[in-house]
Amino acid sequence: GYRDINDIDINMNDPLFTKQWYLINTGQADGTPGLDLNVAEAWELGYTGKGVTIGIMDDGIDYLHPDLASNYNAKASYDFSSNDPYPYPRYTDDWFNSHGTRCAGEVSAAANNNICGVGVAYNSKVAGIRMLDQPFMTDIIEASSISHMPQVIDIYSASWGPTDNGKTVDGPRELTLQAMADGVNKVTVLIIWVLGQNGVYMLELKTVTWEHNAFAQIIKLSPYFKVPLMFTLQYFGIDFIATTDLYGNCTLRHSGTSAAAPEAAGVFALALEANLHLTWRDMQHLTVLTSKRNQLHDEVHRWRRNGVGLEFNHLFGYGVLDAGAMVKMAKDWKTVPERFHCVGGSIQEPEKIPPSGKLFLTLTTDACEGKENFVRYLEHVQAVITVNSTRRGDLNINMTSPMGTKSILLSRRPRDDDSKVGFDKWPFMTTHTWGEDPRGTWALEIGFVGSQPQRGVLKEWTLMLHGTQSAPYIDQIVKDYQSKLAMSKKEELEEELDEAVERSLKSILSK
Amino acid sequence: RGAVYSNHFLVELHDGGQAEAERVAAEHGFGGVRKLPFLESGYFFYHNGLAKARRRRSLQHKLRLEKDSRVRKAVQQEGFIRRKR
Fold this sequence. Notes:
The structure holds 2 protein chains of 2 kinds.
Chain A lengths: L38 H6 L8 E6 L19 E2 L19 H10 L16 E6 L6 E2 H8 L8 E4 L1 E2 L12 H13 L3 E5 L23 E5 L8 E2 L7 E6 L3 E7 H19 L5 H11 L13 E2 L5 E2 L10 H9 L7 E9 L3 E3 L4 E8 L11 E13 L5 E6 L5 E5 L12 E8 L9 E9 L7 E13 L15 H27 L1
Parallel strand pairs in A: 1-3, 1-5, 2-3, 5-7, 7-8, 8-9
Antiparallel strand pairs in A: 10-11, 12-13, 14-22, 15-22, 16-21, 17-20, 17-22, 18-19, 18-21
Helix pairs in contact in A: 2-5, 3-4, 5-7, 6-7
Chain B lengths: L3 E10 L4 H10 L4 E4 L6 E5 L6 E2 L4 H9 L3 E10 L2 E2 L1
Antiparallel strand pairs in B: 1-3, 1-4, 1-5, 2-3
C-alpha cells in the first residue's frame, strides 16, 4: 500500500527541510528511503496540527526564535521551580539549555518561512514548561509541570528521565503518578515519554525504568531497542536531527533520542486535529493498528504475529509510526469501549530460580468471567513480580499468553550488580498481547543469563489484565480492506459469532 | 551521593481553600503557595529563606507545620536526578 517516495509532492523552502529525513526519507544522510513517519501524506490531507498545543517539559523555549515565535503558546508556558511565567532558557556558557528549543522545533517549527526546518505539526502550538535547568528535580515540580493547564495542553512531551547508567531503577514518584492519572482520566491529555539513551549498556535498562509503574497511559517510545513498547521510532545510527536552536539559530546536531518524543507528539497532534475526541486509549489503539513494519529488521528478534494476528517485534514494538495512516483512521474513529481491570491470579509461594535452566510457572485464569470486571479483549498486561537474586542484572523474564504470544519482560542488564534490593512488586508490562483473549493458561519463565552461576528466589507473580469486554473494533469503519483494522474486525466478528453459537448450543443442551 | 533536600514542601490541609493555605504559609514563613490541581487540599509551599538544596532535612519547618492543627500532612521534597536525553 505504499506510494512511491518520488510521488510525494511536498516542497518547502526551509533550508534544513531536505535534511529532516524523518519527515520524508529519500535516502539522504545514509538513511533508508521510505523509512520515515509518512507525514507528507498527512500534510497533503490538510492536517498540520492546527488547534493542538504540545507542552515541551524541558529547559525552556527560545520563544523569540523566528521559526517558533508564531507558534508559541505563551499563556500555557510556565516554570514552577522559579514561578516564572516567561520560561526563556536561562543562560549558560555552553548553551546547555538549548534542549527544549530544539525539541520545540521538531514539533512546531513554522513551514515555508525560509528559516531552519519544518516541524512535524508545523501549525500546532508549543508551550514551554521549564523544569530541567536545575541540578535536581523534586516530585512536586515534576507533578506540577505535568499537570499544568491540561485544558489547554493536549500533549505533554518529555525527553528526559532518570540517570541511564545501566543499573538505576527509577520512575515517576507518588505525586507525579497522581498528576498523570488525574490528567489522563479527567481531561484528555496524552503523555509521551522517550526512554533511554543510546549507550550499549543502557538498552536493557529501559525495560524497567519508566515501565516500573506500568503506566499504560503514557505512550512510551524508544529511538533504540529492546523494550516491550507500543512502538518505536528508529534512527539506525543517524543520530542527529536538524532543528531550531537557541538564540535564533538552527542546528544539525540535536540528539536523535530526544527527538523521538516531540516527533511522536507531532504525529499525534496531526491525529488530534483529525479527531479532537480521541482519548489516550484511542491513540494507543490507533498506534497499534497503523504502525508499520516498513523496513525494520533484526536478525535475532524476528517479526511475529500475536494471537489475533497483529504483527509485532520485541525490539520495534508494532513498528514505525505512520502519520498518514493515522490521520485517515483517526478521522472516522469511534472511541473504544470502556476498559476493565482483572486480577487474573497470583502465585505467592517462594520458588527457587535454578543457576542453570529456568524456573517455569503457569497460571490459569478465567479473566474474571462472569464478574463485572471481565476482560475479554486485552490491551495491557502486567506481571507483578517480586524477585531477589545474587545478581539482578542477569535475570531474564519471559511471559507467554494462552494464545502463545511470548513477551520479553526483562532481558540481561550487564551493569546491574544489585544483590540486595531485587524487584519488589514490580509491575512489568507488555502490550504485545493486544486484542487477545486472556482466558487460559499463562506461563512465566525466569532464568539467569551471564557468565557466573547465580541464585534467586521468585516470591510473587500476580497477573493483572486490562482491556475491554466488548470488541473494540466492531463498530469502526473500515476503508482499507488490507489494513490491520480490517483484519482485527474480521477476527472479532468471527469470534463473536463462534461464542454466540457456543452459548446457543449450551443453552439447547441444558434444556 | 547522599540525599538532597529542597525548599519545596507538600502540604495537605484538613480543609479550607487557597486563602487558608496562604495564611498557613505566611504564618510559617513560607514565601509562596500554589494549589496542586490533582490533589484535594494539596498545596505546594516553598520557602525562600531555605537553601534550594541542602544535605539535611529542615526538621524545624516540617515539625512546625505538622503541629499546626490545620495541616494534615507536610512532606519536605527530596531532590533526585533527571537527565535530558
